[in-house]
Design a protein that fits this description.
- The chain is mostly helical.
- The chain has helices at residues 2-9, 24-36, 58-61, 65-74, 77-80, 87-93, 98-107, 111-118, 141-153, 164-179, 189-201, 211-216, 220-224, 232-246, 262-277, 284-297, 303-318, 328-349, 365-387, 389-408.
């Protein structure tokens, strides 16, 4: 049983399943995406372009008018709050900048929507747009934009799966969970901000190989974290983010949390760490058991239920690619197995044991995804039925349809 759990749990970060039936058009989109996303940003403030309005990024101004018009629609609050949000289209029309734009639209709302709407002479935006209004707490729009540039540059574009598109998808999907009722488990707007940041940074600096690979290959990352595979990469993601916020890479140009009190800073650090560590798939069964037992004995609005629910939401959305509609779940499948099978190839070349689900000669992709959905995703949906019943009702049909696809494959 232990070996089975280890084998399944090694599918760290799987958000969906692979299909040999993915259309040529979808594969072409993936190929072009890798090409247009090759860029880096220096962490020196002198490298930041000088022309910057207070609320509208220069990245927006560089887009063709047709792309700007479509972006206004995609990044509206209503669109951002839908489960079927198309992050692949966002990546296409922004030229490989999905995390930057979705981060601005969500964490900079509603000022971002006002700024985009103000450039449209045909339709003026209403004054009462919904949004998080973090600027009222003291978050600078200019610093938010600089932070998002730094954040996006630290997701490796060469990774087929753990890249800025995945990060944008998880940030947007966590936002959906909050808007569907998850924010009722947040005690303040600072906790909401902490959860959004946790989603944005949750795979920051991911090397494209699992924690198990790091330990087997005795990589520099493994040595830095005592060669212990437990939450190895998750610790690295958090440390990389905290270095940008509070460490050696801290810079006033992107210090979006400068307005926090000491108590709020401690809260943000604690919640980000707690939530991101919860994305380690080896912790799945413990997370589910703890929360399920707690819901049997504690009121749904108790402090501990709220805390564990927030961790659960990020864990759930990190594997939610399996229940995205249309071609999205197939796209995520293609990406995650491209990354896994490349790891298997490297393990063979290094003379290392090949990790489960990473051997292109023996991996049964359809069956592995059926196992993943029934073992991990369905129990999460069952917990969601208690926390946010209407969200469960909305998502379960897509789960059933996608599961049927793999069974028929």
């Amino acid at each position: 049983i232990l070996l089975t759990i280890i084998g399944i749990s090694s599918i760290v970060g799987i958000c969906s399943c692979h299909s040999n039936l993915i259309s040529i058009a979808l594969i072409n989109r993936s190929t072009s995406r890798k090409t247009n996303a090759q860029f880096k940003f220096s962490n020196k403030s002198s490298s930041l372009p000088s022309r910057q309005s207070s609320s509208l990024p220069y990245e927006w101004e560089k887009l063709p008018p047709r792309n700007q018009n479509r972006l206004r629609e995609i990044l509206s609050w209503d669109s951002l709050s839908k489960w079927d949000f198309d992050v692949l289209e966002l990546d296409d029309i922004t030229g490989g900048r999905p995390l930057f734009f979705v981060g601005w639209a969500i964490m900079g709302s509603p000022q971002a929507q006002h700024a985009m709407g103000a450039t449209n002479s045909a339709v003026a935006p209403p004054d009462d747009l919904p949004g998080y209004n973090f600027d009222r707490r003291g978050m600078s729009t200019k610093k938010l934009l600089n932070f998002l540039r730094q954040l996006e540059s630290r997701y490796l574009p060469e990774n087929p799966y753990h890249n800025r598109i995945h990060a944008a998808d998880i940030l947007q999907t966590l936002h959906v969970m909050l808007q569907k009722g998850g924010k009722s488990h947040c005690s303040s707007d600072i906790e909401i901000l902490a959860m959004l940041l946790a989603a944005a940074i949750h795979d920051m600096g991911h090397p494209g190989r699992t924690s198990i690979f790091q330990v087997k290959a005795r990589t520099e990352i493994a040595m830095q974290y005592d060669n212990n595979a437990t939450t190895l990469l998750e610790k690295m993601h958090v440390d990389t983010a905290f270095d940008l916020f509070w460490g050696e890479e801290k810079n006033s140009d992107w210090d979006i949390l400068e307005f926090l009190t000491k108590e709020e800073e401690t809260l943000v650090k604690s919640l980000i760490e707690y939530a991101v560590y919860g994305t380690d798939m080896s912790r799945h069964f413990r997370i589910m058991e703890d929360l399920t037992n707690l819901l049997r004995t504690e009121p749904i609005d108790s402090a501990e239920v709220n805390r564990q629910s927030l961790r659960f939401f990020l864990h759930f959305v990190d594997i939610s690619g399996t229940i995205k509609p249309g071609l999205l779940f197939k796209y995520w499948a293609d990406c995650v197995f491209e990354e896994f099978l490349a790891q298997g190839d490297e393990e063979k070349a290094l003379g290392l044991p090949v990790s489960p689900m990473c051997d292109r000669e023996t991996t049964n992709i359809a069956q592995s995804q059926i196992s993943f959905m029934t073992t991990f995703v369905k129990p999460c949906l069952d917990v969601l039925a208690t926390l946010i019943p209407h969200a469960y009702d909305e998502l379960i049909p897509t789960y059933e349809a996608n599961l049927l696809h793999w069974e028929e494959s």
